[in-house]
Amino acid sequence: MTLSTHAAAGIMIAEWTGNPLLGFLIAIMSHYLLDMVPHGDEFVYWRYIHNKDDRIAKTAGTVDILVLSLMLTLLLTYGDDFHGSLTLLGALGGTLPDLLINIDSVLRRHPPKSRVGRAGEWLIKKHYTMHMFFHQLLFIPVRYRMALFLQLIAITLFLTFAI
Ligand SMILES: [Zn+2]
Predict the structure, then answer these.
(1) Rounded to whole angstroms, how far apart are CA atoms 20 and 87?
(2) How far is it, in rounded angstroms, from Cα 75 to Cα 83?
(3) At what angle do helices 42-50 and 55-78 cross, to 10 degrees?
(4) How many angstroms is it from 139 CA to the middle of ligand 1?
(5) What is the whole-number distance in angstroms between the Cα of residue 76 and the centre of ligand 1?
(6) Which of 12, 52, 64, 79 supports an S-S bond with 162, CB 3.0-4.6 Å?
(7) Closest to 84 measured CA to CA, from 29, 23, 6
(8) C-alpha 104, offset from chain centre
(9) How far is the CA of 26 from the centre of ligand 1 (A)?
(10) How far is the CA of 150 from the centre of ligand 1 (A)?
């Protein structure tokens, strides 16, 4: 699922709680629930795993980051400081599990040498397994174009209910 969708859900949740810390924690949990919803990006993920320079995976990731940046810029520009902290922590909580997945792929290429580093690597590998478990719980193939269209609608709804 796109980072933008997870961030929008996290922002909505943080706004509903009205508490940045609680919003952050529930936004993290929302990530795993949302990942259970079939979202058609498995082939993009596997393309990236097999080839870090894959054009389709890079384009999908770049567009996602641009949409997320635009979304955060607009919300932070037109919101006050309190809502700004809810927006940032909700977005961070909503996307954190996928950010950890990216750390996992870096650690696989550059394994840490220190004891603390290896303990962190072990935790991140456990998280990877748990994350993939939620991803594959309701595996139903969905056309990628349709999944992106539905996520665009979801982002619009999440942000509408957040504001
Ligand atoms: Zn995820």
Answers:
(1) 8
(2) 9
(3) 120
(4) 14
(5) 24
(6) 12
(7) 23
(8) 14
(9) 15
(10) 17
DSSP structure class, residue 132? H
What residue has token string 């939620």? Answer: 134
One digit per residue, the tens of pLDDT, for the chain of length 163 reads: 999 999 999 999 999 999 999 999 999 999 999 999 998 888 888 888 888 889 999 999 999 999 999 999 999 998 777 789 999 999 999 999 999 988 887 888 888 889 888 888 899 999 999 999 998 888 788 999 999 999 999 999 999 998 7
For residue 64, the number of C-alpha atoms closer than 13 Å in the C-beta half-sphere is 21
Q: What is the amino acid identity at position 104?
A: D
Half-sphere exposure of 123 (CA within 13 A, CB side): 8
Q: 110 in helix, strand or coil?
A: coil
Structure tokens at 137: 């719980």
Residue ranges with CB less than 5 Å from ion ligand 1: 35, 98
Of 1, 2, 6, residue with least CA distance to 96 = 6
Report CA-CA distances (Å) from 142 to 1, 44, 46: 12, 13, 15
